[in-house]
Specification:
The protein is α+β, with helices and mostly antiparallel strands. 31% of the residues lie in helices and 27% in strands.
């Protein structure tokens, strides 16, 4: 008696899509306007806009009849921590004529996941693609990302521009002068204090993250040899 092979569930396919109304140049112009509207003070003219990439996000479209009213809600079909995508609002109807170059992020969230939060009588559901422009921009040495709704033009910041990366070179330079002064003072007062000062410095360097990374790389090199 032959065994029937288990059938793997088919991946849901996109049935409709919102068509982009904003091109790349328009998206970049919106990005520039948003950046310049932020409180970046004198650094306003020091940002640089990177390349814009269009990405289609999959959303579940739920059609529910609640009393005499038909409600349409959209929920993300791919895992995302962005709160601005949790409850997408649309006043237009998606097109069933899909773009020829349509490629979406993989749908990783099943529609049933949202059933407990949907109300009314089900009148249909389908997987819908929503276009977004992803644009990177750079301020000083920090790179950030903006997501722009390609249909509505809404700007959704993913990484806020005020969070700058730590410049370890500047921190080391600022700490060098006090360290030298403390060492000279220790030598003038008593040689033992200088030895203690040197021991503290060596301990701090040894415990630093950078030195730890060096130790790990060295250990990996020894193990690999």
């Amino acid at each position: 008696m032959s065994e029937t092979p288990l059938q793997t569930p088919e991946k849901p396919t996109v049935q409709a899509a919102f068509l982009p109304k904003i091109d790349e140049e328009g998206a970049k112009a919106l990005a520039c306007s948003w950046i310049e509207s932020q409180n970046i003070s004198s650094r306003k003219q020091q940002y640089r806009i990177g390349r814009a990439v269009m990405v289609y996000y999959p959303f579940w479209e739920f059609i529910r009849e609640d009393g005499n009213e038909t409600k349409i809600t959209y929920r993300p079909a791919c895992g995302t921590l962005m709160t601005d995508l949790q409850k997408l609002i649309r006043t237009t109807t998606p097109s069933e004529n899909l773009p020829l170059d349509l490629t979406t992020l993989p749908a990783t969230v099943d529609a049933a996941y949202y059933y407990p939060d949907t109300y009314g009588i089900s009148r249909g559901e389908r997987l819908t693609a929503v276009p977004f422009w992803l644009i990177s921009y750079k301020i000083d040495k920090s790179v950030y990302m903006l997501k722009i709704d390609a249909e509505t033009g809404e700007v959704l910041p993913e990484w806020h521009p005020y969070k700058e990366s730590i410049n370890w070179k500047k921190i080391a330079a600022a700490a060098f002068v006090p360290l030298v002064l403390i060492s000279l003072t220790a030598v003038l007062l008593h040689p033992v204090l200088f030895i203690l000062d040197a021991a503290v410095v060596i301990f701090l360097v040894y415990q630093s993250r950078m030195f730890s990374l060096i130790r790990v790389k060295t250990k990996e090199g020894k193990n690999g040899s």
